[in-house]
Amino acid sequence: MLPPASSMAVAAAALLTGCASTIPTTPVPGSAAAPVAAQWHAPLPHGGRLADLRRWWAQFDDPLMLRLIEAGQQVSPSLAQASARIADARAARVARRADLMPSLDANISASRGRSELGMSPGTTASAGLQLGWELDLFGAGRAAADAAQARFESSLANWHDARVSVAAEVATTYVELRACEAQVQQAEADAHSQARTAQITSLAANAGFRPPAAADLANASAAQGHVALIRERARCDLLVGALSALTARDEAALRRDLATGTAQLPQPPELGVTALPAQALAQRPDIHAAAHDVVAASADAAEAQAQRWPRIALAGTIGTTRVASGGVSSDGTVWSIGPVTVTLPLFDGGARRANAQAARARYEAATSIYAARLREAIRDVQTALVTLDSTARRSEGVANAASGFERSYQATEAGYRAGVSSLFELEDARRSVVAARGAATDLQRERISAWIALYRALGGGWSPAAVHAAGREPAP
User: Fold this and answer.
1) How does it sit in the membrane (predicted)?
2) End-to-end Cα spacing for the chain
């Protein structure tokens, strides 16, 4: 039995267990603690079929883009860092859980010597087990374990968020490159048209049929068109370099692969937003990570508060010992229970209280960050929806303009062949067609980028259930 003083200390400590703090559950978007809008304020793109976000990339009609996305994910430093953070969080979780359980150590020792003059040398050997256990009466250990578990969950979600971000970045860069290649083709046609106009205008001016100012203007336009072509080619080169850096692909090999589909923009499958804002945001890994950061901060606050109360530790040993000296030996089992150590915080200059207040402030900061993440997520989705609606509304007008300029050019070309229209009118019509085609390419690029942004804003098909089903381990 414990000594009376120790028994009273344990009993007094047990009476204070009700002071331990409780850990709140993970915040849910749309709850009172995490309010979000009740509905989307931008039109929903229900015109297309509903695609499964988890297989969305595979439905693109461009296999090269898929290979580049996979290459980018394999070499991404952000993914490597996220994997390292998962390993750290897993180790911390194991350590915090181990702190709740008793510790058991084995020890073996042997010695030989003579402790007093005139006595024969003696041998002592022992083997035993040593037990130690700190009772978690006030929940400090449980709070630390809860915080470690929450940080592990957060690190898993952040890994998935990094994976989705890398895929979106590679895809967006690839789309920008293909659109740039299409613009280069239009810029080449425009520069060629302006050069022909400048040549004809110069001949007409030398013959006295056109004023010299017209030739100067035509030459200036041709020079400007050539400068625009050089600028577009340089932009394409920069995008190739960016894509090479993102995927760690050799630039020469990458250019050979890109040459097979020059100026062809990948066509994504359309997807629809069928969930309410709160349901959609629950599928975002960054929101899931921020919610678990709130839980971890709350657990840290509970642990810091529990550190202000007494701590009780138990110890015990059991083993066997053999002593041999002067031809006489003895052996047997030895054991002990105790000591029971009760640590009562009396005076620390306010350090524990300051730590508790700081932990509470970190919890409030985590809740603010979580609320801000929710607002940013709503904005991301709304921005993508607005852009998709805008591009859809503009598509008919751009198509009509391009079709009209095409018909005008064909009519002008027929008139030129019949001798009714001049070459100046033909080149002017050609430039209008080039501008209309460039506008159509820009609109197509903007729309594809908006689909990618919507995919990213909806979480890329990630779900908490998928992580739990996989044993809370990231995919290799």
Assistant:
1) Lipid-anchor
2) 54
Same domain? For 56 and 39 the reply is: yes
Beta-carbon count within 10 A of 85 CB: 18
Token pair, residue 66, equals 């898929």
Q: Which CATH number is 329's domain given? A: 2.20.200
Are residues 83 and 128 located together in one domain of the fold? no
Residues 104, 402: Cα–Cα separation, whole Å? 80
CA-CA distance, 383 to 385, in Å (whole number)?
A: 5
Report how far Cα 395 is from the mean position of its chain's Cα atoms. 32
> Which tokens in the block code for residue 286?
């960054």
Q: Burial of 155 by CB count in 10 Å (0-12 exposed, 13-18 middle, 19+ buried)?
A: buried
pTM value is 0.79
**For residue 474, which of 164, 146, 10 has the smallest C-alpha distance?**
164
Per-residue pLDDT, 58: 80
Contacts of 216 (CB under 8 A, 6+ apart): none
- In whole angstroms, give the CA distance from residue 376 to residue 333: 67
Element (H, E) at 336: strand 328-337
Query: Does residue 199 share a domain with residue 147?
Result: yes
Helix then strand then coil, % of the chain, to nearest 5: 65, 10, 25
Peptide bond preceding 266: is omega within 30 degrees of 0, i.e. cis?
no
| Residue 237 located in a structural domain | yes
Rounded to the nearest 10 degrees, the angle between the axes of helix 140-206 and helix 212-247 is 150
- 290/369 Cα distance (integer angstroms): 7
Predicted confidence at residue 443, as pLDDT, reads 94
**Structure token digits, residue 199:** 């040549």
Question: How confident is the model over 180-214, as pLDDT tens digits?
Answer: 999 999 899 889 888 988 898 899 889 888 788 87
Beta carbons within 10 angstroms of residue 65's beta carbon: 21
CB 137 within 8 A of CB 17: yes
Q: Which residues fall within 8 angstroms of residue 434, CB to CB, at 6 or more apart? A: 186, 189, 190, 193
